[in-house]
Design brief:
CATH superfamily of the largest domain: Cobalamin-binding domain
CATH class of the largest domain: Alpha Beta
CATH topology of the largest domain: Rossmann fold
Radius of gyration: 18 Å
Distance between the termini: 44 Å
Strand order of the largest sheet: 2-1-3-4-5
Strand content: 5-15%
Largest sheet: 5 strands, parallel
Structural class: alpha/beta
Order of helices and strands: HHHHEHEHEHEHEH
Bound molecules: CO-5-methoxybenzimidazolylcobamide
Number of strands: 5
Mean pLDDT: 94
């Protein structure tokens, strides 16, 4: 079977590595970590492993979750499996040799715990030379304001995965403006699109590479 497809299936089944006893049918068998290592040693591009392996698996999980075929515990195991693969890809996606270019403040907005996409944005922007101040998840608007005052970043990045929490994004931008902080903002996440981003005065980040390009254009 194609190795990338195997990785996608292992993410979807939530099997991080051979130590994991979940799912019981795969206990003791190679998981995402072993298969990602194998893919790297076979010379498959890290970006391909990420998109066609790990992210493809997570897409399946999203569809099954949306259709009510699986529930939060299964999704959490899939997230754990995805993270096991991302950890191994990290050094390959980020290059330590690039010169530092400024600060990028990043976080998932208030009420939202999804952080896999945000973490990918962090890895790629750090790799491209920005010092990322990662505020984590469920970040209230005032924390973004504080961080901008403290770190004077080149830009702020907001991530949201829920149609409810994307409504926090304009609140963050409003709080920044009310505090006279005229810093460019980029927003991303599954429910966000170009016209929403434009309507709130932000740039749209379709994917982590878009965040890298946005920052490069500023600096
Ligand atoms: Co949640 N969840 N979840 N979930 N979850 C979604 C988002 C959902 C679409 C699933 C579904 O129903 N099909 C749905 C949202 C529906 C909606 O609002 N329209 C949903 C729901 C309903 C929920 C809960 C409410 C479920 C519940 O409790 N009943 C709950 C909410 C918790 C909360 O936040 N308050 C919940 C919880 C969870 C888990 C904790 C179990 C887990 C998160 C674990 C974690 O992140 N640590 C989880 C997961 C994993 C998902 C799905 C399955 C996968 C998300 C993911 O990581 N995708 C998701 C379904 C889906 O999206 N298909 C779903 C992979 C990741 C790489 O993609 O984050 O989109 P993504 O990031 C992309 C781009 O969007 C972009 O770059 C990335 C790479 O291309 N990007 C940016 C993201 N941020 C960016 C910022 C940028 C630029 C690009 O610049 C700053």
């Amino acid at each position: 079977m194609n190795l990338l497809k195997e990785i996608a299936d292992l993410v979807a089944m939530g099997h991080p590595d051979s130590q994991s006893k979940y799912p019981p049918s795969l206990a003791g068998q190679p998981g995402v970590a072993e298969k990602v290592s194998q893919a790297l040693s076979e010379g498959i591009e890290p970006q391909c492993i990420l998109t066609q392996g790990l992210m493809a698996g997570m897409e399946v999980v999203g569809r099954r979750f949306g259709a009510g075929e699986i529930f939060v515990p299964e999704v959490l195991m899939a997230s754990k499996a995805m993270k096991a693969g991302v950890e191994l890809l990290k050094p390959h996606l980020a290059s330590a040799s690039v010169s530092r270019r400024g600060v990028f403040v990043l976080g998932t907005v208030q009420g939202d715990v999804h952080d896999i996409g945000k973490n990918l944005v962090k890895i790629l922007t750090e790799g491209a030379g920005w010092d990322v101040v990662d505020l984590g998840t469920c970040v209230p608007a005032e924390k973004f304001v504080e961080a901008v005052r403290q770190y004077r970043p080149v830009a702020v990045g907001l991530s949201a995965l829920l149609t409810t929490t994307m409504q926090e994004m304009p609140k963050v931008i409003e709080s920044l403006r009310q505090s006279d902080l005229d810093v460019p903002v980029i927003v991303g996440g599954a429910p966000v699109n170009e016209s929403f981003a434009r309507s709130i005065g932000a740039e749209y980040g379709r994917d982590p590479q878009a965040a890298v390009e946005f920052l490069s254009a500023l600096n």
